[in-house]
Amino acid sequence: MSQIYLLFPPSWTLTTGSAHLALPLLKGFLESKGVPTRTHDLNLEFANRLVARLPVATLQSACSEGSLEGMNKPYFQAEDEINRVTIGFDGEWNAQLGFSFSRFSHHSSRQVFESLDAESPFHQYFDERVIPELERENSRIVGICLASLYQLIPTFQLCKRLRQTGYEGFIVLGGNTVSRLLREMSIPPVFDLIDGLIPFQGEMPMHELYRVLREGGDFADVPSLIWRDNDGTIRQNTNHSEFILDEAAAPDYSDLPVGKYWGVNYLNVISARGCYWGKCNFCAIPYGWGENGFAGQRSAQRTYEDIVTLMERHSIRRFKFVDETLSPHFMRAFSKLIIDNDLKIEWEGYTRLERDWCDASFVDLVSKAGFRKGWFGLECLPSDKRVHLNKNDAADPLRLLELCSAANIKVHFFCLFGYPGTGKDEAENTVEFLLRNRDLIDTVDIFPWTYAKHTKVTGVERIERPGEDWALEYAHASLRADTLNSEEIAELASYWEEVVWAKAPRLLHPSYRMISPWSIE
Ligand code: SF4
In this protein, which residues make up the domain named Elp3/MiaA/NifB-like radical SAM core (predicted)? Predict the structure, then answer.
């Protein structure tokens, strides 16, 4: 019997080879403190009721020719199969994002609450499978991780039904979406359905919350907790706890269906929480990690031990670091441990275009340690306009591609078009570069710049749509002649994305991403 039951709600991406890391991190920590904890991935389980998982062999054969039609086939067959069921609920399922209702926007708290009793693809699943399971367990705490806005409506639909069945335990929401919308979610209608919100790192707050519920005590003592007191006042506690990352246990995936996700399966791991740079002008990522945008670094030694533990538990040798940016310093130290201990693994991760990526000895070292793919923020081809982005990197993409190609490391470039100070020329030059070097590039993303919540950008005016209080991005109007407005940027990015789709579809295709970059069986 678990004391804490952690749920990952439906309506997240299906094109991933691993469970989201949040629940395994919490379970690992809480169990190491003696708190029986269960985790349950509702996203995959719900999808499994509608469609069979996309197997590796099908994806490999679909991608073997590299044609758009070939890669489209299995992907859209699977997506269509889900939509055949969910279409009756007036919405659409995107396999990379989740389900969106046509009539209700998850950008609006009012519409989220209006949706709670509407017809939903999730109600039957919640009533037949999830709520009976929660009733059986009757855990003191039900914790729900909101990694994406798409999970908001199903989460509140579940909470309402759970309350209606008489569950009297403590329901708490956490995850990246809660961290980013903390102020906007701290409202009475939310607290009519749930009992608490926990932003940022959940380990210490969850442990203390459990102690208070078990031993009696004051919710005011639970670090970071947002809760409603007996007078109906919503209170926000400060974070007075110290969380030392090296003292945490390894992530615990033992309740989750490891090996049963779409495509080639791997395990998510993490060393640093946040981005050590954290100052790119367009980027809201650091905000999701804590007040200062960075919540600490686990040592290379402890991260190495996590990998060994997970290999032994699950016989899996592929790992994805979900750190926002792996630092070269960490990669060097971690690689040396892998090589010295002759560990045969493959790993990939997000990293910045630091000077080290132009150093053949660094690239060779991480390659020897099994690093198979780097996900880099190129944004635009380097020019004197790069300064507007405040990347503060040492981007030399051609040198990077040549060194990585020679070292058997694949490269992904994130591209961002239309940030104020950059425009049509930068977009065109970047796409020309991508296409010219398509044989050296594994995958790319092309995003239009949108004004992200928690960023401050000059030269444009942010437009907040009435009622969209839970939006994380905004439209904008241009205030300068050299700056594009939202519609122009969307058009620009879409135009160049179409060019890439037409000439090099592998670079963008989700089918290919479900098998790359792995080679270890
Ligand atoms: S874009 Fe990348 S490097 Fe820049 S702040 Fe965001 S996460 Fe950090």
Answer: 265-477
Sheet holding 196-198, edge to edge: 37-41, 4-8, 141-145, 170-174, 196-198, 226-228, 234-236
The phi-psi region of residue 138 (left if phi > 0; otherwise alpha if psi is between -120 and 50; otherwise beta) is left
CA of 354 from ligand 1 middle (Å) equals 12
Instruction: Give the number of other CB atoms < 10 A from CB of residue 285.
Output: 19
Residue 464: DSSP 8-state:
P
Instruction: Report the percentage of the chain scoring pLDDT > 90.
Output: 96
Domains and their CATH numbers in the chain: 4-50+98-236 (3.40.50.280), 266-513 (3.80.30.20)
* Residue 88 pLDDT > 90: no
Residue with tokens 């050299």, as numbered in its chain: 482
Amino acid 311: pLDDT:
98
Closest atom, ligand 1, to C-alpha of 278: 5
**Cα of 116 to ligand 1 centre, how many Å?**
36
pLDDT(356) > 90? yes
Distance 326 CA to ligand 1 centre (A): 11
- Which residues form the pocket of ligand 1, taking CB atoms under 6 Å from any ligand atom? 275, 277-280, 283, 285-286, 324-325, 352, 377
Average pLDDT over residues 79-104: 93
Percent of the chain with pLDDT over 70: 100
Q: Using the mean position of ligand 1's atoms as its centre, give its distance from the Cα of residue 323 in Å.
A: 11
The two three-digit tokens of residue 51, written as one number: 């469609």
Question: How far, in Å, from the CA of 293 to the mean position of ligand 1?
Answer: 10
Task: Indicate the range of 36-50, 82-96, 202-216, 380-394 predicted with least confidence.
Answer: 82-96
**What average pLDDT does this structure show over 181-209?**
98
- Provide the b/e sequence for 243-256 (b: ≥16 CB within 10 Å): bebeebbbbbbebb
Q: Ligand 1 pocket check: which of 180, 285, 321 to mutate, most ligand atoms within 8 Å of Cβ?
A: 285
* pLDDT > 90? residue 264: yes
Tell whether the model's pLDDT for residue 521 goes beyond 70: no
Our CA dihedral for 518, 175, 446, 502, rounded to 10 degrees, sits at 60
Residues near 114 by beta carbon (within 8 Å), at least 6 away in sequence:
104
Residue 129: other Cβ atoms inside 10 A: 15
Half-sphere exposure of 472 (CA within 13 A, CB side): 20
Output the residue whose Cα is nearest ligand 1's atom 5. 278
* H-helix segments, 315-451: 328-340, 360-368, 397-406, 424-436
The residue to mutate among 280, 292, 323, 388, having the most atoms of ligand 1 within 8 angstroms of its beta carbon, is 280
Q: Once rounded to an integer, what is the mean pLDDT over residues 400-429?
A: 98
Band of pLDDT at residue 292, cut at 50, 70 and 90: confident
Angle 42-50/68-86 helices, nearest 10 degrees? 90
Distance (Å, rounded) from C-alpha 373 to C-alpha 319?
11
Predicted ipTM > 0.90: yes
